[in-house]
């Protein structure tokens, strides 16, 4: 039993870190958000709600400047103030923001918050154990190697979740009569809107799939649906 103590302690510590992060995130969202009040976007979310058999889809505005959409750990959907400013400036359309909402709904429907908790706990446990082991043989450098391994694993798992949420969004947008064109057009704009790493960044370090990969996956799904 004693030989497993470091692993158990690492898992407990990582789980505690995750729970604290969730608590802090929810507290910030509660303090800095309000219901979305944009009729053109709401008309599209109502169509998605009808397709899902729901009375409505509640969307909140998170009052921060970065351009982003997010699914909170408690299942709520948020668009940032920064994203809405781009919409009001005519840089993104209501349908493109609807595709963001559909994507975040995918994270909720597919249980990614719970999976993220498991992934985060495992990744941090791997980092702590690997850094302890490697530092015996490679003092100082061992921590860097362990962090690289943990970050690469985290990025890979995150890309998996993003592809799954993209697929959910594509299906919902088609079922709602909105189609996937806004989803693809938003992806083409996203790097410029967010300042995210560009096409030259190593794919294995990215938390989100590259734009061309996401669009190619959507078009592959469309081709398969057309043949069905």
TrEMBL record:
Belongs to the peptidase M48 family. GO terms for molecular function: metal ion binding; metalloendopeptidase activity. Binds 1 zinc ion per subunit. One of its GO terms (biological process) is proteolysis involved in protein catabolic process. It comes from the Bacteria. Its cofactor is Zn(2+). InterPro entries: Mito/Outer_Membr_Metalloprot (IPR051156), Peptidase_M48 (IPR001915). GO terms for cellular component: membrane. Keywords: Hydrolase, Metal-binding, Metalloprotease, Protease, Zinc. Pfam families: Peptidase_M48. CDD domains: M48C_Oma1_like. Residues 36-221 form the Peptidase M48 domain. This is Peptidase M48 Ste24p. Signal peptide: none annotated. It comes from Rhodobacter ferrooxidans.
